[in-house]
């Protein structure tokens, strides 16, 4: 069971990282654009 659950959790964590990273990059592009 643990071997089946671990990959799913890892996938979710990477997915969350991408979701969290996108707004940060967009904000950075916005600040650069406005400057």
Q: What features would you describe in this structure?
A:
The protein contains 1 helix and no strands. With 35 residues, the chain is an all-alpha fold. The chain has one domain (1-35). The protein is rod-shaped, with a radius of gyration of 15 Å. It starts with a helix and ends with a helix.
Could you describe the largest sheet, including whether it forms a barrel? none
- Can you count the beta strands? 0
The oligomeric state is single chain
Strand-pairing-aware structural class: mainly alpha
What is the mean predicted local confidence, pLDDT? 74
Helix content: over 70%
Low-pLDDT stretches are none
- Percent range for β-strand residues: under 5%
Distinct helical segment count:
1
Tally of distinct domains: 1
* Shape verdict: rod-shaped
As a whole number of angstroms, the C-alpha radius of gyration is 15 Å
Element-level helix/strand string: H
Q: Compute the separation of the termini in Å.
A: 52 Å
Quick overview of this protein structure:
With 35 residues, this protein is mostly helical. 94% of the residues lie in helices and 0% in strands.
Produce the secondary structure layout.
Blueprint: H1 2-34
Keywords:
35 residues, 94% helix, 1 helix, mainly alpha, single chain
